[in-house]
Amino acid sequence: MISIFTNVSFWVLLLYILLVLWVSYVFRSQKNSDFLIGSNSIGFWPTTLSLAAGMRDGGGLAIWVFMGIVFGIGSLSIVLGAVFAFMLLAYFATRIHRLAQKHQFITINDFIGFRFGTKTKTLSQLIVLWFAFFYATANLFVGGSIIAALLDVSATWGISITALTVGFYLVIGGYRNVVYTDVFQWLLLLLVFVVPFFLKTDVSVGASLISFASMDYHLAFFIGGLLFTIFFSSPDVWQRIFSSQDETVAKKSLLASIFFYLCLTIGLILLGVALSQNFDFSDPQKAFFAFFQTGTADSLLLSLVAVMGFAALMSTLDTQTFLFSSTLAQLINHSNKNRSQTIKNIIVLIILLMVSIASQIGDFISFFFSSTSLISILFPVLLSGLLVKDHDDKPAFYALLIGMITYFYCFLSGLLDTNVAYNLLPVGICTLVLLVLRGIKKN
Question: Judging by beta carbons within 10 Å of its beta carbon (0-12, 13-18, 19+), is residue 93 exposed, middle or buried?
Fold first, then answer.
């Protein structure tokens, strides 16, 4: 049993947590509109870096390290899906922001309800709740696991520490703290460029991976297509557009965040190449987490990688926890009056529930985390809402409903795992149904 207080990792993690709490206290919300949506006054840099940090979560780090080990630079080809999604959102940013300001949108569901109607809005809220809950719980589980591995404590302790930290600064600061702590988390993610210097890396060994041809084009196309629909439909990305101080900031931030996103992705790919040359991983898919259990890595190196991973998962955990809480509060309290207090109450309750589930049923979380791509079926509805003003509630509602049924059939039957192309099937069917029903309605 390692003595915690003589463990370098303990002090590094403690410093990280104290800094996060300090940042959250300094930038905490001063009024109700700050708590709900940052008073729609978030500037360029906070919006940009919050967007960039939000694109990286604990699971995402593991995936991109794996991609670096197996495909090298070739895996960058699938990033084009996310890049195109942000470019398209930047094109519509002015329209989205003006509507948000005029009609006081707080969540993506407000836009859907405004364009389509109550039924479609309610169904989209259920989709967002599913997405946010399992996304947040999975990152809570990962955070607890990292602390447990580093400090030689139980996973329950690790999960509880993570939950207390994020719960505290969400309750005192709400949305405003989500954005400003994300800026701090993004700066810590830059450690990805420092870590390889602690490792002996032979560039010539990975030379075969410095090629876009290292990844199958068909695989890259379908994964890239899935990322395109997911990133375009991400509720937290739309909230960043809503909360920007003006439409120019919203547009420029979306475009600038692409650069920072690509920098972090390249850094993670190179980290994967470096780790593969220094450690023997039996399963490359689990290389990022297996690194903490090698027993041969330098303690300072372990701490740096842990802080980087923790920063990534915390930026997602706080975002998705607040998204879940604000969406549920909106579902049960349609007016903005007293909504901030309702959100605070939900944050406390949902964190307790997530701690309970993440501590006891890790396999359950791992299984349902893979269903968070359900959010992609919002894509045709959102795009239609931006392109066409005259909408009826029923076509969009039934299109989303059939898309959901298709998605869960593919998910529960294992089709999503057998072929990545099946991940785009629910989106395609949702789009087709929407077009057909709109055509019938017109006629």
Answer: buried
Structural domain total, the chain = 1
Q: What distance in Å separates the CA atoms of residue 402 and residue 295, rounded to the nearest whole number?
A: 49
CB 186 within 8 Å of CB 260: yes
d(CA 336, CA 326): 10
Residue with the two structure tokens 């039996």? 282
Does residue 240 fall inside a structural domain? yes
Report the 10 Å Cβ neighbour count for 15.
Answer: 12
Paired tokens of 11 = 């002090």
Question: From the CB of residue 119, how many other CB atoms can be counted at a distance below 10 Å?
Answer: 16
pTM of the model: 0.91
Per the domain annotation, does 397 fall within a domain? no
CATH number at residue 228: 1.20.1730.10
pLDDT per residue as tens, the chain (443 positions): 445 555 777 888 888 899 999 999 998 877 888 898 888 889 999 999 999 888 777 667 778 788 877 777 777 788 889 999 999 999 999 999 999 999 999 999 999 999 999 999 999 999 999 999 999 998 898 888 888 877 778 888 989 999 999 999 999 999 999 999 999 988 888 877 777 667 666 555 444 455 555 567 787 888 899 999 999 999 999 999 999 999 999 999 999 999 988 888 888 887 777 777 777 766 777 777 777 766 666 777 777 888 888 888 888 999 999 999 999 999 887 666 678 889 999 999 999 999 998 887 666 777 778 889 999 999 999 999 999 877 788 999 999 999 999 999 999 999 988 888 899 999 999 999 999 998 887 66
Give residue 213's domain range.
4-360
Query: Could you give the 3-state DSSP secondary structure of residue 234?
Result: coil
| 42 strand-pairing partners | 244
Residue 412, in any domain of the structure: no
